[in-house]
Amino acid sequence: MAKKTLKDLPPLQGKRVLVRVDFNVAHDPKTGAIVNDRRIRAAVPTLKYLTDAGARVIVMSHFGRPEGDPAKDAIYRLDRIAARLQELLGVRVRKVDEVVGPGVTAAVETLLPGGVLVLENLRFHPGEKKNDAYFAQCLADLGDIYVNEAFGTCHNAKDASMIALPQAMAAAGKPRVIGFLVEKELAILDQLLSAPPRPLVGVLGGAKVSDKIKFIESLLAKVDRLLIGGAMTYTFLKAQGGGVGNSRFEHDQLDVAGRLLESGKIVLPTDHVVADRPEASAATQVVEGPIPDGWLGVDIGPKTIEQYRRAIAEAGTVVWNGPMGWFELEPFSHGTRAVAEALAASKAVTIVGGGETAEAVEAFGVADRIKHVSTGGGAFLNYVESGRLPALDQIEDRKTP
Asked: Staple partner for 54: which of 13, 134, 183, 337, CB 3.0–4.6 Å?
């Protein structure tokens, strides 16, 4: 059933609106400086809609994995994020140094219509990861309306701000809706799951088959072809009895890989870029067929790149999750870049599924030429697998005639 959205809310003038966003942005691990603000930019339309409507907007997010002590984990404070949000929104954004408490309550009480207040990193409070009901109630007391605009966190079943907080809002009869970003994510994914333009081509990379078994099974039930790249390639090749040299593969997943190959839809690379060690300065060569001992696969080869380009060009829908190689190192990035550029040039419905893949299309400068780049990695995978997410169960359903 469709979820209620911002457009289902009553007049917002003066209302205190709690907005759970996902500002867990890519950052410098030493300084905390923002490296990629894509997730902040993605929430701006919802926040601007609320401020323009005269709402008093209270923004909540997690950031990184702090241990709970702001003094020791100062890089995970949200000051830089609040400053960047202010630049993007074009209105004053105030940030407080606590998550809940008298100081936060006072800041909310003095927040004017059209104003924005950013709470401190939710994960500085122990109640967030414990789905603590009392902590959630303290947050619920701050607002009149709850908006879930954190698609990338919707698969987390034990975050208080995603589960217990909307439950507390529901108990008080307060509205719970999704924002524009989550609404768009669900519309795109629902199209993918129900009636995608054909042929539907999946492109799947990454390190491990074991991390994505359910996702692969779900894709195989929907796609016409599934193009494989990344380190998981070598588990599939090993399952076929092929030589993989020193490439990493999962011994305990060979039977699973063999079973998945029985679908007849999986396409494996026919050639590989291999290196003598996992470093950018390594000696490399292109290998067709078995990979020699002493060499490991680090990228798909040129013949495979052309094969995958043709498959993408002929597709009606393309869904991509996972890089084709070790794309962070330039010598091993060509396969991932080629797939990104092929999606950008395609006339198909093109969908990129969060995480490293989203970072790749941003880094290669093609994100704005892809129909949808998801802000969620795990949430994207989980929704394709099951068609539901725990946090969305807490949002009001829109009744249809």
From this structure: 13
